[in-house]
Amino acid sequence: MATFVERSGPDGKPVWQVKIRRRGYPPQSATFDTRAKAETWAKHVETDMDRGTFASDTEAASTTLAEALDRYEREITPHKKGAHDEHYKLNVWRKSLLALRFLSSIQGKDLALWRDAELKRGSAPGTIRRRIALLSHVFVIAKREWGMSSLINPTDNIRLPPPGRARERRLVVDEYPRLLATARVYGGEIGPLITWAIETAMRRGEIAAMRWEHLDRKARVLLIPETKNGTPRRVPLSVAALAVLDGLPRRIDGRVWGMRPDSISQAFERVCGAAGIEGLTFHDLRHEATSRLFEKGLNPMQVAAITGHKTLQMLKRYTHLRAEDLVGMLG
């Protein structure tokens, strides 16, 4: 049975507080500016209770997004392959004003405002889409596994920015020797890492995780036991790739490289800046390497076996053949 009490609101105007207590259900309460609205809400809740379809929003209404993000990182993130990088993605949402809001209060319009602000700041559409996808999964987990069955996922009610065009950046003119020359000045592993990336088309995370016991020197093959798509693969090694390994000291911990994924990107960015090279990322070296494999005459299946791409469509996104390099093949 619902009870209604008239009270004075924060602004001095009267408000109506409604409370519902029913055996088998947690107490429910809400406040409205008119009794009519309070009665409508109470009727809706009691009808759902009668039907056995009532889902309490108490927990969703008392859990902030920041608290949900923290729990998600404790319980869900550690089971993902990209757990290390996801920490930084979650921090993007922790730093937003939405982090202070209760989950049940976040609506599609709030995320639409966030999306538009990010686009205005210059964030790439793909980056925004990935961040929204992560937030969406937080709401999915809260609804399915944390008992917030009444929670509505606000990401279902907004338009995502269209995917940006696939990057087509390749090394041009003398950029490769300039990169290597500058990397030699910096010293450390970044120079060999650049050559390795070009020779193997491996992902940054795969490179950072390499271990000496996975190398079959005689067969000239490197095993990658854990990949982004979950399928282990064996990468054939060129003479140049083997030369890179031969020039590296053996680490006591068994790892081939001492740098972590984020450190690799940071070092590469510094080298590009010092070399006067703009618009190039370490991940672009995977595009470059994939395109070079095709230019060597390998067919799509052979290239996919090396790069680990699951579909020809994804392989195409990483392949950027230059018209001038194809002229000689036409006769």
From TrEMBL:
<dbReference type="InterPro" id="IPR011010">
    <property type="entry name" value="DNA_brk_join_enz"/>
</dbReference>
<keyword id="KW-0238">DNA-binding</keyword>
<dbReference type="GO" id="GO:0003677">
    <property type="term" value="F:DNA binding"/>
</dbReference>
<dbReference type="GO" id="GO:0006310">
    <property type="term" value="P:DNA recombination"/>
</dbReference>
<dbReference type="InterPro" id="IPR013762">
    <property type="entry name" value="Integrase-like_cat_sf"/>
</dbReference>
<dbReference type="InterPro" id="IPR050090">
    <property type="entry name" value="Tyrosine_recombinase_XerCD"/>
</dbReference>
<feature type="domain" description="Tyr recombinase">
    <location>
        <begin position="166"/>
        <end position="331"/>
    </location>
</feature>
<dbReference type="GO" id="GO:0015074">
    <property type="term" value="P:DNA integration"/>
</dbReference>
<dbReference type="InterPro" id="IPR002104">
    <property type="entry name" value="Integrase_catalytic"/>
</dbReference>
<keyword id="KW-0233">DNA recombination</keyword>
<protein>
    <recommendedName>
        <fullName>Tyr recombinase domain-containing protein</fullName>
    </recommendedName>
</protein>
<dbReference type="Pfam" id="PF00589">
    <property type="entry name" value="Phage_integrase"/>
</dbReference>
<keyword id="KW-0229">DNA integration</keyword>
<dbReference type="InterPro" id="IPR010998">
    <property type="entry name" value="Integrase_recombinase_N"/>
</dbReference>
